[in-house]
Structures
1.
Amino acid sequence: MKDFIYTGHAQRVLFGSGTLARLGDEVDALGAKRALLLCTPGQREEAQRVADVLGPRCASVFAGAMMHVPIEVAREARIAAARLGADCAVAFGGGSTIGLGKAIALESGLPVIAVPTTYSGSEMTGIYGLTEAGVKRTGIDPRARPRTVIYDVELTHSLPLEMSVASGMNAIAHAAESLYARDVNPIVALMAEEGIRALGRALPLFGGSDPAQALAGRSDALYGAWLCGTVLGSVGMSLHHKLCHTLGGSFNLPHAQTHSIVLPHALAYNAEAAPEAMSRIAAALGGGNAAQCVYDLAGSAGALLALKDVGLRESDLDRACELALRTPYPNPRRLEAHAIRQLLQDAYDGVRPSVHA
Ligand SMILES: NC(=O)c1ccc[n+]([C@@H]2O[C@H](COP(=O)([O-])OP(=O)(O)OC[C@H]3O[C@@H](n4cnc5c(N)ncnc54)[C@H](O)[C@@H]3O)[C@@H](O)[C@H]2O)c1
C-alpha cells in the first residue's frame, strides 16, 4: 500500500428514525440555551415541529434560507442571531439551509447543529458559499463545519420523488469524484464506495409501491449521503463539480438536478484516465461501465436526464464551456476544450454515454 495522509474531522453524528426527539439534549450538550432555527420558506411548517422539540430553547425561527446563500440573507440572519442573543443555530433542511448556518458560524463562531432533509452532504463539510451581486464565492473553513449532525430518516419522506433521486445522485457525484481525487486515500475510497453502494440500492426503491421497501431505501440513502458528504469534506473535487458549479452559478440551474444530469458524462470523459475509480464505481452499482451504470440508475429511479429539461438553452453551451475552462483545476484527464464542449452537448441532449467514450 502507498503512503497516505488521512485527516479526521470531529463531528458528533446521530443517525436513525425519530432522532429529532434528541435535538434538545444535543443543544444542552453544546452548553447552549437559545437556538436560532433556520429553514427555507417552503419548510416553515415542518420547522414548527422542530421548534416544538426545542421548546423554550428555540429563540426564534428564521425562515429565509435560499439557494446559494445570498449575502443579504446571511447578513439578516446574523443580525437576527445577535439581536436574539442566540448561542447556537439549528439548520433544518437541505444544502441551502445548512449553507446559511455555515455563513452564521463563520462570522459569529456560533455552533451549528445540522438536521439534514436532503442528501446534499453539506452538513459533513467545511465548504461554504456566499453569493454577492450574482457571483458565488466558495471557500473551506473548519469553523463552517456543523458541530453536530442529526440524521432522522423520517424527515426525508416528504422530499418529492424527483428531487430525492436527484439529491441522491448529487451525493453519488461527491463519492465518484473522490475516487479519482489527487489526495484520495484508502479510507476515503472505502467510504466512497460504500456510499455509492448504499445509494445505488436505495434510489430505485423510492418510487416503488412497497412502503416497507421505500422506508428501507430512505434509510440507506441517508446513510449513503452521510458517507458521500464525508468524502466531499475530505478530498478535492474535479471536472464534474467545476462544471456543475459553473452551470448552477452562471445559468441558475437547480443544484441537485444539474449534478445528476452531468455526472454520467463527466465520468465518461474521465473513464480512460481513471480506470481504478471507474471499476470501484461500477462494482458498487452492480458491474459494467461506470458512466452507463450511473446514467441507468438515474433514469430508472426517475431523475431528469437532460440539461435542456432544467432550463439551459443550447446557445449557453459555448459560454458554459468557456467559463468551465477559464481557471485550471486538477482532473485525471487533461482539460480539452473540444471534448468538454461535447460532454456538455451530451448532457444537454441527455444521451446515454457510449462505452468507448
Ligand atoms: N457546502 C457544501 O458542502 C455543499 C454540498 C452540497 C450542496 N451544497 C449547496 O446546497 C444547495 C443545494 O442544496 P440541496 O440540493 O439540498 O437543495 P435545497 O436545500 O436548496 O432544497 C431544495 C428544495 O427542497 C426543499 N426541501 C428540502 N428538504 C425537503 C424535505 N425533506 N421535504 C420537502 N421539501 C424539502 C427545500 O425547502 C427547497 O425548496 C446549493 O446551494 C449547493 O451549492 C453545498
2.
Amino acid sequence: MPVITNIADLKRLHERRTPRMFYDYAESGSWTEQTFRENTTDFEKIRLRQRVAVDMSGRSTASTMIGQEVAMPVALAPVGLTGMQHADGEIKAARAAQAFGVPFTLSTMSINSIEDVAEATGKPFWFQLYTMKDTDYTSRLIQRAKDAKCSALVITLDLQLLGQRHKDLKNGLSAPPKLTPKTIANLMTKWAWGIEMLSAKRRHFGNIVGHVHGISDTASLGAWTAEQFDPTLDWSKIARLMEQWGGKVILKGILDPEDAKMAAKLGADAIVVSNHGGRQLDGALSSIRMLRPILDAVQGDTEVHLDSGIRSGQDVLKALAMGAKGTMIGRAFVYGLGAMGEKGVSTALEVIRKELDMTMALCGETKVQNLGRHNLLIPEDFEGRWQP
Ligand SMILES: Cc1cc2nc3c(=O)[nH]c(=O)nc-3n(C[C@H](O)[C@H](O)[C@H](O)COP(=O)(O)O)c2cc1C
C-alpha cells in the first residue's frame, strides 16, 4: 500500500481505480475550466505569517458550524453520484464523517437514498436540495429529509441549469454507466471497482428512481437536470422552501455580496460562498477572492462558510483566518473515496486535520477560533479592481 501523505496522493489512486467517466466527472470544471483552476491557484497567492516562541501545547481544531459541534470546521460538501466513485459511496463517506466528527451533506443527486444513509449512520446529516419543477416531488423530498432527522437543509442556488462540462458529454456520463464499446473497454481495466459495485445497495439515483414518474432517462444527469430542475427559482420561492423546512438552512452557491445580503435578510443560518467548484459559471472569480467582500457585506448577519478549491488544511486555515466560520470540501474527499472507500475519506480528513493543526501551530495559534487576518499576508490587489 502506498504511503499517503497528502490529498494529491489520494487523487492519483482515485484516477487509477475508478472508471474514467466518474473520475472525469469529479475532475472537471465547466467550459475552459478557468474558474476551476483559479479556485486552487488563488489560495496559493495568500501567504502565512510565521510566528515563534508561542506555547504550542493544548491545540484544538474543534469549533461549531451552525451551532453544531465539529472536530474541525470542515464539512463534506454535497457531491452527486458519490456512489459511483465507490460502491455505496454516500454511506461510506457519511460513516467516515460521523466517526471523525464533521458534518456530511447528502446530495439530491446521490446514489444511496436519504433513507439508506439514515439507516446506515447514527447521527443526523445535512441534506442538499435541488428544487424541481415538480413541486410535489420537492415537497416529498423535504419531508423525507425531515423524517430522516436531517439536521440542516442545504439549498443549492447556483445550479438551476447544468454548466457544460465537455468531458461528461463526450464520455456519455450516466449512472449506472451505459455499456458502449468505449465504456466496456475502460471498465475492463477497473476490476476492483466493478466487483464491489456488483454488491452495492444501489447503482442509480436513489432519491429519484422509484419516487418520480415520466422521466425519459433517469440514468442521465444531463437529461434529468434539463427536464426537471426549476429554472424559476427566486428569492420568494427560497423563502417558501425555508418555511416548509422549518429547521436550520444553509444557502449554498453565493458568490456576490448583493446575493449574500439577500440570503442574510431571508434568515439563512449560514451561506456557502461557492462557485460549485468551478463547475457552473466559468469566468466567475474564485470563492476565496470573493470571501472578503461577502463578509463585509453581511456584517455578521449570517454565518459564512466557503468551498471551492480546498485541497489542504492550509487552504482551510486561510479561509478561516480570512473570516469564514466553516468550510466544505468536495473533491478532496471524493479522491479519498474513489481511492480507498471509507478509509480513504477518513484519510483525507486526517490529512487535512494534521495540516490545519500544524500550520496553526507554526502561525503561533492554538485554537482555530483565534485565527484571523493577522495570520495572513494577503497581496494588496488580491480581490482585484474589477469594473462592473
Ligand atoms: C463531482 C461533483 C459533484 C457535485 N455535485 C453537487 C451536488 O449534487 N449538489 C451540490 O450542491 N453541489 C455539488 N457539487 C459542488 C460541491 O458541493 C462543492 O461546492 C464543490 O465540490 C467545492 O469545490 P471543491 O471540489 O474544489 O472542494 C459537486 C462537486 C463535484 C466535484
3.
Amino acid sequence: MVKDTSMTSPLFKLGLAALCSTLLASCAQSPTGRSQMLLFSPQQMSKLGADSFEEMKKQEKVSKDARMNAYVSCVAKAVTAQVPSQYGITSWEVVVFDSKQVNAFALPGGKIGVYSGLLKVAKNQDQLATVIGHELTHVLAQHSNERLSRSQLTGLGLAAADIAMGSSEYRGATMAALGLGVEVGVMLPYGREQESEADRLGLDLMARAGFNPAEAVPLWQNMSAAAGGKAPPQLLSTHPSNENRIAELQALQAEAMPLYEQARAAGLVPQCKA
Ligand SMILES: [Zn+2]
C-alpha cells in the first residue's frame, strides 16, 4: 500500500504559508521555518510574473522546435502536476527560448522558461526535472516576493505601487528581483537559505512526479564541468556547486528517494524523450 504523505510534506506546509500570506503580510513562514516578510499579494506577484514573461518573449527568441518543445513540456507538465492545489495555480505556460544560455526560470503566475542551452547540460529528463523543480520552488516559496519586499524596505528605489502596476521605469529592477538576468545581464543570486529550500523542495517535487532524484548530483557536476566552455552556465553563477552543496544534495537525494519509489509504484513513470 502506498502511504499518503501529502498532508505532512513540506510542500503542503509551504502551501499553507502561501495561503496565510494572502490574509496577513507578516504571518508567512517558509517551509524551513524562516519567517518571511511579504509586502506583495499573490495577485500582484502573478501580474508581475505574467508581465515579465511577456517581456521575456519579446526580448528572447522563442523556439519553434516542435520536438524540443514537446520534451520540455512533458517534463514540466509532470512536475507541475505535483504542485499542491492550494497554491491556486490552475495552468502553466511553458516556453523554450532558442539560446545558448544554460538557464531556466519560473515566475509567479504559472510561467516557466527554459533556454535550449540547458538541454546540453541537463542530459536527461530527470536532470531537467531537477532544474524545473528547483526553479518552481523559488516561486512556490515566494522567494521573489521576499526579495522585492526587502529591496523595498531597504530603500533601493523600488516603489511598491509602481512595481505592482508594472511601471516601465521599474521594469528592469523588478525583473531582476524575479530572477531574470535582463538588461543588467547578471542574475541576482538568491540567499543561501532560499537556495537550500529550493534544492530540498525541488527534489521533493520532482521525486513525487516519478523523476529520479539521484540525477541531481550528476546534473550539478555537469554544470561545473561546463564552466570552462565558451558559454559558462548562467545557472552556475547563481548556484555555485561546491563540495558543500554537493554533499547537501546527496543527503537530500536520500530523503527524496522514498517519494520517488512511491511515485513509481503508483504508476507515475514519466517517459519524456529528448
Ligand atoms: Zn536557485
